[in-house]
Each structure stands twice: as C-alpha cells, then as structure tokens.
Design a protein that fits this description.
Layout lengths: L2 H14 L1 H23 L17 E9 L3 E2 L3 H8 L2 H11 L4 H10 L10 E5 L6 E5 L4 H17 L8 E5 L4 E2 L12 H33 L16 E4 L5 H9 L5 E6 L5 H9 L4 E5 L13 E6 L6 H10 L7 E6 L1
Parallel strand pairs: 7-11, 8-9, 8-10, 10-11
Antiparallel strand pairs: 1-2, 1-4, 1-5, 1-6, 3-4
Helix pairs in contact: 2-7, 8-9
Length: 337
Amino acid sequence: MDLKSFSLEVWQLIKDYKKLIASLAIIFSLLFAGVRLLMQWDFQTVGTETIETEGVPSNFDLFIEQDNLGTFTNSYLIEILATQPEVVSSMEQETGIVIQDVLDEFSENFDPVYTNEDPINIERNTSTNVMTVTIGVGTSEENQELAEAYYSWVSESEHPFFDDKNVYLLSEPEATEEEPVFVNGEGPTASIVSVILMAGIGLVFGIVAAIAIAILKALLHDKILYSFTYGWKSDDIYMRELNQAGDKVAYDILSGHADKVVILTEHPLSEELVNALTKMGQHQFSIHSNVTSIPIDERFEECSIIIQRKLTSKDWYASQRKNLKLYPSARTKIIEI
C-alpha cells in the first residue's frame, strides 16, 4: 500500500469513528486536567485558612562591612539569620503579622536557596555588593510594616552575628513596583497554564488512543473494513472505487489488454454493476465466488478480486490469494467497492 492510499484509509477510519474519537478526547482531556488540579491541591489546608500573599512587596537597601575583612558579601547568611524562628517570632509579636506559616508554606513548594521570590529575601548586587531586603508575606500594608520592623532590627540588632560588622542602611523601606507575590502553590497564572497544558495533552492522548482502538478493532474484525487490514503484492493493481457509479467500476474491472477476465466476489454484485459489465461486450468475463469454482479448462489473463467493504471476509480473501497461485501468469487486480 502506498502512502496516499494509507492516508485516505486512515482519514476514512477517523470519519467513521469520529464519535469515539471525540468522546475519548474529551474524557482524557478532563481526566488529565483533573489529575493536574488534584496534584496542585494541598489536602493539608482543607478546612484551614489559606495563606495567600497578594500585596506589593516592600524593600530597603543596606551595605555591610566586616572588621579587618572588608565588604561582607554573604547575603544568604543574612537571610538565614532573618528567618530564624526566634527572629521571626520576635517580628510576629512586634507587628502581629503571621510570618512563620507563610515561610513554611513557601518552603514546601520551593527551595529558598534557588529562588529570589521567597517571602523574606535578601539579594546582593554583585557589582556594588549592596544588599536589597525584600519583604512580601502579606498585604501591601503588612509588607511595609514588616519591612520597617526588619529595618529597625538590622540597625539596632544586638545579635552576636553583628558584633564585628558595621551595617550601613542606604534606603528606607518603601513599596516596590513589582507584581503581587503569590506564595500558595505556583500562583494562579502558572496553575491555569499547567491545567490547560495538561488538558491539551489529554486531548491529544485521547485522540491517539481512540484511533489506536479503532485500528485494532478493524484489524481484529472478520470482515474487511479498510484496505490496510489485508495485504496484496507489489505487482497487484489496486483501485479504490468507493461510492462510484456502476459504469466507472465496470470500466476499471475490465480495462486493460486482457482478452479474458475472471471476476471473483464473495457476495453477488449489484444488478447495476452486472449490467454495466455486460454492456462492455468487447471483453469476455466470468463471475465466480471462489477460485475453485473456475472451470479447469478456462484460461484467463487477469483476475479482478472484488472487495465489498463490511461484507467480504478476510478468510475468503486469503483463500482466493492462496488458490490464485495455481495461475501464476494471471495479473491480479483488486477493486474495492
């Protein structure tokens, strides 16, 4: 079978099984999207208050020098210190803002080491060594209040860590112009995109699965439904004459240089086709239901096997191909109607 014939047959199969394909595509699309939603759902938060930060972060800049060593550059060490439980607890008592729960929820979804989007983030400018402290744990007002609290903590801290360091505050806390920060999960945009993506993947998977099921059903069916469900030789002549008029089919059956044509068909041909064949009197032909019913003394140059879709059985076709080996000089033509 050539690529064009195979493509036509697959397209015909898709049209025949369009309801199955559409149904499975929708089912798998919804299934994949549902699984993605379940994966994003935090079952531990069911029945509890959902912590979602929607405010604009606030930040301030600072510069640190260490005695006898010069510029202090380890911003992550400062961030670890600022998020220590005792420091966070002190800030919560001072401001009344929930901090630890936000930090815990963020760490469940992200690794603070590899992101600058954590609720309390300290990032160093590698060119100037200026550190920017960014607070984004709640509403804009809460972020500003907490940034001011950390500003005071840094400037007045009695923590032993700062004993050999000088802290220079370069700016006061102020709101940034960044988009709102979402700590709960991946954020609404990312969640919607991932659900849509999974729905698309499910759609494609459903279509492929449905086509595979349809092909499998056709291959296992005892009748010939499509041309790719049976085989023929490379030197055979194959003609696809579905829904063609009787005159056209008759011409294709008898066309050629053969003086005598044997027509094999498992089921009787339509009266219209038989009449059209009879009108073409320049060719001698005979119609048989089996190779073994051809008279021994009958000689023919060509054999036309008629395949009637959904009627002709695969066993009958295989039997005719086997018995036609008794006539090696006869050309074989396969006509699908």
